[in-house]
Each structure stands twice: as C-alpha cells, then as structure tokens.
C-alpha cells in the first residue's frame, strides 16, 4: 500500500459512521412468524441455531490459533489485531444468534404445547 493510501486509510478508520438498519432475513421472518405453522417455524429456528453454532465454533477455532500465536493480549499495532477484533465481534454476534434461536424454539414449543392442551 502506498503512503498516501495508508494516510487515507488511517483517516477513514476513525471517521464516525451512521448506524445502518439491520438486514437480517431471519429477523424479518420472526416479525411475521405469527403466520407460520409452529412446527415448521421450530424446524427453521433449529436449523438456524445449528448454522450459527457451526460458525461460532469456526470463529472460536480461529481465535484460538491467533491467541496461541500472539497471546490473549494482542498488541493493537499489529495487523493481526484487526482480524482478532473482528473475530471477537463475530463470536459475540453468533453467541447472540444461537441464544435467540433457542429462545424462539422455546417460545414456539411452549405455544404448541398450550395449543395441544387446549385441544
């Protein structure tokens, strides 16, 4: 990268950004979940939970490699720190997604149970 490119990147990296709206198809589906067959919705959210759990495991594996190489306190001046930081963001996002999918399954399962009890 050229010196002028590095200078531009150095300036850009700390420029404030606007909060962008979330674009998550699963969240949109949850918004309209009241229209769905509960058993099909449970299947969908269990599938999504597995996918998020797999991605979480992948991210955690990469983090472990980085921590093995550099230790848990990475020097923020190293290029690897950016990868380390974004992986942490990914881990937190995937943990939240797994937990939310489990919660959705629980909500849908409870509803199905109540419907069955009411006949």
Automatic annotation (TrEMBL):
Q: Name one Pfam family in it.
A: Vir_act_alpha_C
Q: Which organism is it from?
A: Ktedonobacter racemifer DSM 44963
Q: What is the protein name given in its UniProt record?
A: Transcriptional regulator PadR
* Alphabetical list of SUPFAM superfamilies matching this protein: Winged helix' DNA-binding domain
All copies of the Transcription regulator PadR C-terminal domain together span 23-108
What is the annotated signal peptide range for this record?
none
The organism that produces this protein has a lineage beginning with: Bacteria, Bacillati, Chloroflexota, Ktedonobacteria, Ktedonobacterales
């Amino acid at each position: 990268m050229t010196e002028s490119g590095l200078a531009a990147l150095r300036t850009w990296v700390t420029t404030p950004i606007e909060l962008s709206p979330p674009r998550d198809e699963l969240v949109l589906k949850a918004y309209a979940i009241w229209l769905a067959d509960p058993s099909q919705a449970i299947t969908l959210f269990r599938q999504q939970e597995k996918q998020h759990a797999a991605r979480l495991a992948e991210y955690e594996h990469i983090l472990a490699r980085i921590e093995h190489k550099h230790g848990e306190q990475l020097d923020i001046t190293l290029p690897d720190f950016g990868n380390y930081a974004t992986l942490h963001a990914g881990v937190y996002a995937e943990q939240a997604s797994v937990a939310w999918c489990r919660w959705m399954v629980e909500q849908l399962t409870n509803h199905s149970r109540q419907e069955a009890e009411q006949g």
